[in-house]
UniProtKB/TrEMBL annotation:
Residues 113-178 form the Anoctamin dimerisation domain. GO terms for molecular function: chloride channel activity; protein dimerization activity. GO terms for cellular component: plasma membrane. InterPro entries: Anoct_dimer (IPR032394), Anoctamin (IPR007632), Anoctamin_TM (IPR049452). It comes from Stegastes partitus. The gene is LOC103363096. The chain crosses the membrane at residues 192-216, 268-286, 332-359, 379-401, 421-444, 563-590, 614-638, 719-748. This is Anoctamin. It is found in: Cell membrane; Membrane. It comes from the Eukaryota. It is a multi-pass membrane protein.
Length: 776
């Protein structure tokens, strides 16, 4: 069946929305964009047996499309059958008319084309909602393998333009052609890149401040009395495990103490406060930034539900709308399943704790002295790697479970399904990523007991302890390994996977290109005037798209999820890792181009979708911003040694009486945080072999980090004072920052005044045009 391209004529002028009155051309409705030769392509396996059910369903579906006046071109190539689908122009005329009279319309007299991305979206909707006699739609036929693939075609010229201006590594430090991306991939993809670019741009201030905070901690390397006290101490510390571990000297962990001070200093408190306010400002300024583009694209009043109704009417005039329904039984069942899944994920966190405890015991028994002395740090690193492996596996499991739960809900539309899936998937992923971090931040070293009464897992394995310099370094190690591994390894696989697949499939495409080389000699004007391309040229184009990696409705979701998880890392525990914004900034500079190259050259064209916001992601980001305030307050008040140092400085240290001393006010702090366990016959917690130092000295007592009496292990008054100050600080910190967040949200308007005024005048102009049309 021959398919022609552009045929300029009087009919075409009418088709393009231009009518003649007294010899003058006058624009009416926004015209439909001149179509491609084919809007969509279906691919199926060649079936010789015409009696097979798959063959009959295939033919029946194509016949249903023909009944709707779709043009279908069939080309057989070896074991594949290609169906080129072209929709009739009447469908798009109905769509633009219904859109014009709906409340979701933003048409204006100067907007004279319907984007090609809209055309593809309409055809995609109709194909998915065209059932055969037995009730199966295209999605069902795809699952039944009646059709192997479906895709819309890349436009070579626009694809080449995007590749030259955007989808290349050398453009990493250049801006993004957002409007061009929107015209090609639709508003949904464009808003993702707009958000990602804005997020990356606003990461520059926290990245720079994080470097300053890091350098501030670095400046204490040679002058801090805390480091000197650790490095020069002769204190003997208690064994870290029951078997194989011996007493050790505090000075052996001098390097660990220096690293701790890099991230646990006064600068991190101010930086955490800054990041909490930054998260709010980022979201408010994003709303303004988005509003400018949404207004320019004329989708400010766009409504997803209304467009869905329009598409259903265009597909079937006699359609019935899907009613809104809610089932308390299904919602309760889904809630129970979500709770069970979260408990399973938390259970994996407990398994990680057991793994670290066992690993620490094994490392402590090693003959290599360095590994034996740093058994806890080694166990923490191994646990972080194991955590990453669990994340990799659970990501697939979480996706399957989230999809099953969405199936139980029986949502009304795909948009509702996508929103529900997004919330569930993010919840599962958040617990998968952060459960272990929350344990390290708020429980590690605080529930392990004391000599003579250690807390044990299954009555066998002793829980881990914190270093005398604090627990924040353990959180830093965990975050660094997970964040670096996730960003580097996932990006490598994200790019090399599609590239390798395309490389392996290129031989077939190259053969087709050589067969149809004579088609390349045709002048562009010949094609525009309707010169028909040969079957080889069509097949070459369809094959080149078919060989690309497949995309689905959730392809963009994966990119968003990755970035929102990164945003969570950057804000929630930033007090423990001030360099997180810098790592995120470096990653995102490459992430933008990686996603662009993958989307433009390595994957099939994503079906363009219209929207005016990033959807439920904005609510998730706001929730993360609130959680960041709470988490950072708890990290500073509970996890770090900021409060104990403050109490010591003004209550127990050399400067407590207000007298001027020649020594630093923090001298003696480390020794003040240690309690002593004596082996006097009554409390023989450790064996005699464990009480021998590395130099062979037999000791009768050892120290451990806690505020307890040396006699009966009861908690000292200093412990209760520090606990009270911790709670007071957390409450004050969170209330101050929440107030700052509300003030920032109120102070920054959600849309620029120019945008609001433009919308006002545009709406007034359209109303006047309607009134003139009514009076005429």
């Amino acid at each position: 069946m021959p398919v022609h391209r552009r045929q300029p004529s009087i009919e075409l002028l009418e088709f393009m929305g231009v009518v003649r009155e007294n010899g003058n051309e006058q624009a009416s409705l926004p015209p439909v964009h001149t179509p491609l030769s084919y809007d969509y392509v279906l691919v199926a396996k060649t079936i010789d047996d015409q009696e097979r059910t798959a063959f009959k369903k295939q033919i029946e579906y194509i016949d249903e499309l023909k009944k709707k006046n779709f043009k279908v071109t069939k080309i057989i190539d070896d074991d594949l059958v290609f169906y080129g689908i072209q929709a009739p122009k009447e469908i798009f005329e109905k769509y633009r008319y219904l859109l014009k009279v709906s409340d979701a319309c933003n048409w204006s007299s100067d907007q004279n084309i319907v984007p090609l991305s809209t055309r593809i979206r309409i055809v995609h909707f109709i194909l998915n909602h065209t059932p055969i006699r037995t009730g199966e739609g295209l999605r069902d036929l795809m699952k039944m393998r009646v059709f192997e693939a479906r895709f819309c075609l890349h436009e070579k010229k626009k694809q080449r333009e995007l590749k030259e201006s955007w989808a290349r590594w050398t453009a990493c430090l250049q801006g993004q052609p957002i409007t061009a991306v929107r015209n090609y991939f639709g508003e949904k993809v464009a808003l993702y890149y707009l958000w990602l670019g804005w997020y990356t741009y606003l990461l520059i201030p926290p990245a720079l401040i994080g470097i300053v905070v890091f350098l501030y901690g670095l400046s204490f390397f040679s002058s801090s009395p805390l480091i000197k006290e650790v490095c020069e101490a002769d204190t003997v510390m208690c064994p870290l495990c029951d078997k194989g571990c011996k007493v050790w000297r505090l000075s052996d962990t001098c390097t660990y103490a220096k690293v701790s001070l890099l991230f646990d200093n006064n600068g991190t408190v101010l930086f955490a406060m800054f990041m909490a306010v930054w998260a709010t400002l980022f979201l408010e300024f994003w709303k303004r930034h988005r509003a400018s583009y949404v207004c320019e694209w004329k989708v400010s009043d766009w409504c997803e539900e209304e467009e869905e109704l329009i598409l259903e009417i265009v597909n079937n005039v006699n359609c019935e709308p899907k009613e809104f329904r809610h089932s308390y039984l299904r919602s309760t069942l889904v809630l129970i399943c979500v709770t069970v899944m979260i408990l399973v994920i938390i259970g994996l966190t407990h398994a990680l704790v057991v793994f670290r405890v066992i690993a620490a015991g094994f490392l402590a028994k090693e003959s290599w002295e360095f590994l034996s002395n740093h058994s806890n740090t080694g166990a923490m690193m191994l646990g972080a790697v194991m955590h990453y492996l669990i994340i990799t596996v659970m990501t697939r499991v979480n996706r399957i479970v989230a999809m099953k739960l969405c199936g139980i809900e029986k949502t009304r539309s795909f948009a509702t399904t996508e929103k529900s899936f997004t919330v569930k998937m993010f919840t599962f992923q958040f617990f998968t990523y952060f459960s272990s971090l929350f344990y390290v931040a708020f429980f590690l070293g605080r529930i392990n007991g004391h000599p003579g009464d250690y807390v044990r897992i299954a009555g066998k394995w002793r829980l881990e302890e914190c270093h005398p310099s604090g627990c924040l370094t353990d959180l830093f190690i965990q975050m660094t390994i997970i964040m670096v591994l996730k960003q580097t390894i996932s990006n490598v696989f994200e790019f090399t996977g599609p590239w390798l697949c395309r490389f392996l499939k290129r031989r077939r495409t190259q053969k087709l290109q050589r067969k149809c080389a004579h088609c390349y000699l045709k002048d562009d004007s010949e094609v525009k005037n309707g010169s028909e391309l040969c079957d080889n040229c069509k097949l070459r184009d369809w094959h080149s798209n078919y060989r690309l990696n497949d995309v689905d409705s959730f392809s963009l979701f994966s990119e968003f999820l990755e970035m929102v998880i990164q945003f969570s890392f950057t804000t929630i525990f930033v007090a423990a890792f001030p360099l997180a914004p810098l790592l995120a900034l470096i990653n995102n500079v490459f992430e933008i181009r990686l996603d662009a190259i993958k989307m433009v050259t390595l994957e099939r064209r994503m079906v363009p979708k219209k929207t005016n916001d990033i959807g439920v992601w904005i609510d998730i980001l706001e929730a993360v911003g609130v959680l960041a305030v709470i988490a950072n307050g708890l990290v500073i008040g509970v996890s770090s040694d900021f409060i104990p140092r403050l109490v010591y400085r003004y209550r127990y240290g050399p400067c407590a009486n207000g007298t001027v001393a020649d020594i630093d006010c923090m001298v003696g702090y480390i020794n003040n945080t240690l309690s002593i366990a004596r082996m006097d016959g009554k409390n023989n917690t450790f064996s005699s072999n464990q009480m021998i130092t590395s130099t062979g000295l037999n000791v009768t007592h050892c120290s451990y980090k806690d505020y307890r009496s040396n006699e009966d292990y009861s908690l000292t008054p200093q412990f209760w004072l520090i606990l009270a100050v911790r709670f007071a600080f957390v409450i004050l910190f969170e209330h101050v920052l929440v107030i700052c967040k509300f003030i920032a949200a109120w102070f920054v308007p959600s849309a620029p005044m120019q945008v609001k005024n433009d919308r006002l005048f545009d709406k007034l102009k359209r109303l006047k045009e309607e009134l003139r049309s009514f009076e005429a």
